[in-house]
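Input record (Table S2, row 357):
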Amino acid sequence: MPPASTPSTDRLVRPEIAALDGYVPGEQPQSGKWIKLNTNENPYPPSPAVARALAATATGRTLAKYPDPMATAFRRRAAEVLGVDPDWIICGNGSDDLLTILVRTFVGEGECLRMPYPSYILYRTLAGIQGASCDEVHYRPDWSLGDDFASARDDLRLAIVANPNSPSGTLLPPARVAELAARLPCAVVVDEAYGDFADTNCLGLVKDNPRVIVTRSFSKSYALAGLRFGFAVAQPALIEQMLKVKDSYNCDALSIAAATAAIDDQAWLADNRAKIVATRTRLIEAMRALGFNAHESQANFVWCTHAERPHRPIYEALKAQGILIRFMNYAGWGDGLRITVGTDDEIDAFLAVMKTV
Ligand SMILES: *Cc1c(COP(=O)(O)O)cnc(C)c1O
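Output record (pyridoxal-5'-phosphate complex):
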């Protein structure tokens, strides 16, 4: 076996790719009995309507044919739920696919992508693949964003804000996002992967501002991370451009059917959200009682720091006991622990171990 990467393979690929640190997702152990509180998956099974839709799609000849390239069934149903027209929606193989489409649509080689820091590291990777630069504007200590986020620069083509943000779980008020978007001279993506867990969202901004795009994921609030489905909402003129960039069949027949069934079951969503929010409150209070600074969260995870105790050994000690959380270290910012809201039993098991470490 030749080594994975040699100086000669580096010369075969584009210099932007050779220079890139690939995005590293959180640990996904494929065996063993772990309590997984590290990648913000939903701890509950999805709506039972999903299994029925999958079974119906797997029967007969549906899978023998190419899927609908426009995911029309999903767009129609989602449009009703969201109160927009279907041509305001584009679907993707997870919202990561939509982020890729967006960066490819708006940001050319040598141009600039702006994002807050610390936030979702994938944005930086996508800029790197495109040969674009990223302009990372630091959050203030209270996780608000200053006006410098909207400052002009000639090569700026796209700004992406995760709202609620990861790892903080904090939410910029829609009015603040609207203000920044109005000043920014480029397209603005609001990544609402955690939007269903928050008290408000930025969907309304899409109607007021033709440069705003909101992305949503089925991985977190709909408990379908294994399925890969997401969508974006924007005015039709932008959707039309993005459709040119996406793969023809970026969503398969199973995921379109399952996501359509999932979004149709809003009662399941409301019930799941209530459970997560209740456990989130309990987790925050318990972490504070243990002496952590646990930030108020609008997502399905909690960002915790401790004034005296180093964070990495806490992560290691939990891992040794079969509990995975996320240790995050942001150069120039600091580190901390991001804990996904699991079931009540999972959080009880986590807290029991925390009291001993
Ligand atoms: C999880 C996550 C995504 C990706 O969601 P997928 O739909 O699973 O691709 C996008 N943005 C943020 C901020 C996330 O945390």
